[in-house]
Specification:
The protein has a six-stranded antiparallel sheet. The chain has a two-stranded antiparallel sheet with strand order 3-6. The protein contains four helices and eight strands. With 191 residues, it is an alpha+beta fold.
Length: 191
């Protein structure tokens, strides 16, 4: 799929910001994770999840995406951010998907990403099915308060929170596959 071009560091560095135009407005999104994810809920992780019951559950999701990213983008992300998740079938293996996940450019923030420090992640976390086919072992990834703390902020303002908005659009690829784009405003149960 065209999304898999993001697995190339030079492509990410050339296109670190995605522009999405919809009937509801135009927005720019900074890519923070580029990863291979399981279809559905394999491994206890759903990379296409769009609603979280609280900040901690969202922080766990962000930690998982970051650990799975093939590229260390150094784009900060936290539980107050809206996410855009683009996925397509992964060409390397049936039953897996390739995901590009970006956060919305914040109010007052420049719509550019500094990509000089971006680098390939030494040992990204792949789905179990990937290791079964390709061998190797998964890196030690343990969720703990320290793993998720950097994604939590004290600036959460419940007045700005909105109910989840899921917008799905099929984008045809050159080889006939479908790419799903989901724009998600995440609301958590805490205030």
């Amino acid at each position: 799929s065209h999304l898999e071009k993001y697995s190339d560091l030079s492509f990410y560095q050339a296109v670190p910001v995605i522009t999405m135009n919809t009937l509801y407005g135009d927005a720019r999104w900074k890519v923070f994770a580029v990863c291979v994810i399981p279809e559905g809920q394999e491994d206890g992780f759903n990379g296409e999840q769009t609603f979280f019951f609280n900040d901690e559950a969202f922080a766990v999701h962000l930690a998982q995406l970051t650990a799975r990213s093939l590229i260390e983008t150094h784009v900060d992300v936290n539980v107050n951010d809206e996410l855009l998740t683009l996925t397509a079938p992964y060409s390397g293996q049936e039953g897996l998907r390739f995901a590009v996940v970006a956060r919305k450019v914040r109010i007052g923030e420049a719509a550019v990403s500094e990509t000089q420090a971006a680098a390939y992640r030494e040992n990204p976390l792949y789905p179990n099915a990937w290791y079964e086919k390709n061998g190797g072992t998964a890196p030690d990834f343990t969720l703990s308060p320290s793993t998720t703390q950097s994604f939590l902020t004290e600036e959460w303002n419940s007045l700005e929170a909105q109910l989840p908005v899921n917008e799905t659009k099929d984008l045809p690829g050159q080889t006939g596959e479908q790419t799903t784009a989901q724009a998600t405003t995440t609301t958590t149960g805490s205030s």
